[in-house]
Specification:
The complex is a heterodimer of chains A (627) and B (138). Chain A is 48% helix and 16% strand. With 627 residues, chain A is an alpha/beta fold. Chain A folds into three domains: 2-163, Response regulator (Rossmann fold, 3-Layer(aba) Sandwich), CATH 3.40.50; 166-285 and 315-343, Response regulator (Rossmann fold, 3-Layer(aba) Sandwich); 472-627, 2-Layer Sandwich (Heat Shock Protein 90), CATH 3.30.565. In chain A, helix 11 links the parallel strand 12 and strand 13. The longest helix of chain A has 58 residues, at 347-404. In chain A, 41% of the residues are buried. Chain B has 138 residues and is of the alpha/beta class. Chain B has one domain (24-120, 129-133): Response regulator (Rossmann fold, 3-Layer(aba) Sandwich), CATH 3.40.50. Chain B is 43% helix and 20% strand. Chain B has helices at 7-13, 26-38, 49-55, 75-84, 100-108, 121-133, and strands at 18-22, 42-46, 61-67, 90-95, 113-116. In chain B, strands 2-1-3-4-5 form a five-stranded parallel beta sheet, sandwiched between helices. In chain B, strand 3, helix 4 (75-84) and strand 4 form a beta-alpha-beta unit. The longest helix of chain B is centred in the N-terminal third of the chain and has 13 residues, at 26-38. Chain B is globular, with a radius of gyration of 14 Å. Chain A binds chain B through residues 407-408, 410-423, 425-427, 429-430, 432-433, 440, 444, 447, 450-451, 454, 495-496, 498, and chain B through 3, 25, 27-28, 30-32, 34-35, 37-39, 69, 71, 74, 94, 96-98, 116-121, 124.
Chain lengths: 627, 138
């Protein structure tokens, strides 16, 4: 079944090929125009296909016609298709039967226009016109005007004829092979073939002068093949038709061309679209689309009642990309507008949209990612910068505090130093006496050691106070302990200022995570601020109280309260603003630095006035653990 | 050298005069007392102005070595309090704190000496000697 089918399909194509393979004839007979009147309904167009629907050549031409008609009428057209299958059923009986059948079928829906594709369809409609489509315009297509003349079609039949210009094909070859020196024209031995050769000789007369020209004719298929295999590489080969070789063997021309091209040593060109994919490089041909458009335009004119006449389907240059590659011909040398068939689309051509989209997405994502990374780096840099600034400022603040506390620090140092000196001098006197009290000397030495340790502790606290941080030194410590050490530093100052310093220590550990020196600095700032606030207060009423507690929210709280003037309510919020100060000597930075430090460690700081007078500053820090 | 002087001699000059040392820092107080004792002076120590006021017997005291910064009432306040109550004791201030204004005020008010800790023993001893020589009862 498969084999039979295959054979029949090939034989079908023969007719269509023949339709294409006709001689050039320039004279076109004008057909008389005929007015049409279609009232109250959409026009009907019947397309007659010569073969069955599986034959690509006619089917594609028919599809091109349909598409064009539907587009032009915006779908307001009734299209009918009939596949006459005349190649497989050429018998007169079938033709008659088909004629009767279609006549009956379209009895109530007479077509306004009949489009007959190919010679067989043209003959069929000529014979059955009266019964099938009386009064309809007949348009034939797919063969040359000379063939039409031979067929003796009715006078009012108009045609969309396909003419074959060998010169255009030759010119395309010249463009592709500018270095070629030889020209070979191949033609068969049938009558049609010979007339084609004659036409070619005339058409190529001028063209061939630039080449060493040889007409390969009167050869058997084997001779054709052998000769083609021995051609110089710089040859152009133009294949016309070989319906028959010298031995009288019949061929479908493109099959003959295929056989020859397989072993040919030079590129072969032909003027038929059907030669494409059969080993030719290409040529100037009528494409199905071109044919379809010409036919459809004629049909539209006919439907519109416009005067119509025979037309020639425009030709296009078509090339087989694989053959271009085979012969190393550059597609750049193709004539403008040339169509490349069987072109393996490059990755880019095939997926350009996806590629562009993907690249766009990748680029966009990349940009976003880079942007985010840059942003993150900038933010990190900014964070580092701001942290370093904070550390710098805190260090300046530490120095300022140390400066402010220098008097009390000196006091604290002078106390043990004074004791040491007096002890040492007392000991010297005692040792000079007749009976030195060695026990007393021993006590003195113990005191000296202790005072020396005291002095050392003061120096240590001082160094801790002035310690400069390159980075935050995170550590977990008890808020009570840092408060105690701050009180030690403050004691001298409080004493000097006549301030009674007292502390209420939380009964439990208050572990916080921060830089110990920074938290101590907060306490010193708040405490010196509180002491400054009590300058106007009577000495006996100057009380500074540091208290640590665990809040209900399980946070560590330190409160520093004074008995000073308090803070005007409207200024409670602004006391932490930088450069806010009420003191003539204040920098206005102590409290803002305290806030910056507290917030760095996730804490809060605020001020309030105590009901009993004075202000209280509270610092709340999150517990490092609930221990 | 002052400490080479025989302590006995001074004791002869002022047998009942005791030097009161009012100093809140225990170690400092002990060291000053030791120094004075080693130089032949009798001493009694007090840890605060209030303690001195409540316990000291003014009649037995020849002079006071008085720390300025005491917890509670300051040395200067104590002196003023004593003056105000008619007790005219010679006072030698000792201090660990630099305070020029206070120093000037104290010197003007007639303190025998104003010593900065740490001070050389000879300054204290000579000041005490002067204080005891200048009879407060004069």
């Amino acid at each position: 079944m498969g084999l039979v089918r295959n054979w029949t399909m090939r034989s079908c194509r023969l007719g269509w090929l023949a339709a294409f393979c006709c001689m050039f004839l320039g004279v076109v007979a004008a057909a008389p125009s005929m007015s049409m009147e279609i009232v109250g309904r959409v026009p009907r167009v019947l397309i007659l296909y010569p073969y069955d629907e599986r034959i690509a050549a006619t089917t594609e031409a028919g599809e091109a016609v349909r598409t064009r008609l539907l587009d032009a009428t915006k779908g307001k057209i009734d299209l009918f298709s009939e596949f006459l299958d005349l190649s497989r059923f050429p018998e007169a009986e079938h033709v008659g039967r088909m004629g009767r059948y279609l006549s009956a079928k379209y009895a109530d829906r007479r077509p306004d226009v009949v489009l007959a594709l190919g010679e067989e369809s043209a003959r069929f409609i000529s014979a059955n016109r009266k019964n099938l489509a009386d009064g309809a315009r007949i348009i034939v297509a797919g063969f040359s005007s000379s063939t039409a003349e031979e067929m003796d079609l009715p006078g009012d039949v108009i045609g969309a004829f396909s003419e074959f210009h060998i010169l255009k094909t030759a010119e395309m070859a010249r463009e592709l092979q500018p270095e070629a020196r030889h020209l070979f024209i191949i033609g068969g031995s049938s009558e049609f073939d010979r007339s084609w050769l004659a036409t070619a000789r005339a058409d190529l007369a001028a063209f061939s002068k630039s080449y060493e020209t040889t007409y390969l004719e009167d050869l058997t298929i084997d001779e054709f093949t052998r000769r083609a295999a021995e051609l110089p590489r710089d040859s152009i080969v133009l294949a016309l038709t070989i319906f028959k070789d010298r031995d009288g063997r019949n061929f479908i021309p493109r099959e003959a061309v295929k056989q020859i091209s397989e072993t040919a040593s030079a590129p072969i060109y032909g003027p038929y679209l059907t030669y494409i994919d059969y080993g030719v490089v290409g040529g100037s041909v009528v494409t199905f689309e071109s044919l379809g458009k010409t036919v459809a335009d004629l049909a539209l004119d006919a439907l519109a009642g416009k005067p119509t006449s025979n037309r020639e389907s425009p030709q296009s240059y078509v090339a087989d990309a694989r053959e271009l590659q085979r012969w190393g011909l550059s597609e750049k040398n193709l004539p403008p507008g040339a169509i490349q068939m069987f072109k393996e689309p490059t990755f880019w051509e095939q997926y350009w949209l996806a590629t562009v989209a993907a690249l766009a997405i990748i680029t966009a994502q990349g940009t976003v990612i880079v942007g985010l990374l840059v942003e993150r780096r900038r933010r990190r840099a900014a964070e580092t910068e701001s942290r370093h600034r904070l550390l710098e400022v805190v260090h300046l603040n530490q120095s300022a505090t140390a400066g402010a506390l220098s008097a009390s620090i000196a006091h604290e140092l002078n106390q043990p130093l004074g004791a040491i000196r007096s002890n040492a001098e007392a000991a010297a006197v005692i040792l000079r006496s007749e009976r030195p009290d060695l026990e007393l000397i021993e006590q003195i030495l113990v005191d000296i050691q202790n005072d020396d340790q005291r002095a050392h502790d003061v120096i240590s606290r001082m160094r801790g106070l002035l310690k400069k941080r390159g980075e935050i030194d995170w550590q977990e410590f008890d808020l009570n302990d840092v408060t105690t050490s701050a009180i030690r530093i403050l004691r001298g100052e409080a004493e000097r200022r006549g301030v009674v310093l007292s502390a209420n220590r939380a009964p439990r550990e208050l572990p916080v995570r921060a830089d110990r020196v920074h938290v101590q600095q907060v306490i010193l700032n708040l405490a010196t601020n509180a002491m400054d606030a009590m300058l106007d207060v009577v000495t006996t009423e100057r009380r500074l109280t540091l208290e640590t507690t665990l809040t209900k929210e399980s946070k560590a709280e330190l409160s520093i309260s004074d008995t000073g003037r308090g803070i005007p309510d409207e200024q409670l919020a602004s006391v932490f603003e930088p450069f806010y100060t009420t003191k003539p000597t204040g920098t206005g930075l102590g409290l803002s630095i305290a806030r910056a430090i507290v917030e760095t460690y996730g804490g809060k700081i605020w001020a309030a006035n105590r009901p009993e007078g004075g202000a209280v500053f509270r610092v709340v820090l999150p517990l490092a653990r609930n221990g | 050298m002052l400490f080479a002087l025989a302590p006995e001699r001074r004791q002869l000059e002022s047998p009942l005069r005791t030097v009161a040392v009012v100093e809140d820092d225990p170690s400092m107080r002990r060291s000053v007392e030791r120094l004075l004792n080693a130089n032949g002076f009798a001493t009694e120590g007090h840890s605060s102005a209030e303690a001195f006021l409540s316990r000291a017997d003014a009649s037995r005291i020849g002079c006071v070595v008085l720390d300025i910064h005491l917890g509670g009432m300051s040395g200067v306040e104590l002196w003023q309090r004593l003056k105000a109550s008619g007790v005219n004791l010679s006072v030698i201030f000792i201090t660990a704190v630099e305070d020029e204004a206070l120093e000037l005020e104290a010197v003007k008010a007639g303190c025998v000496a104003y010593l900065h800790k740490p001070f050389p023993a000879e300054l204290l001893v000579s000041a005490v000697n002067r204080a005891l020589t200048v009879s407060p009862s004069d």
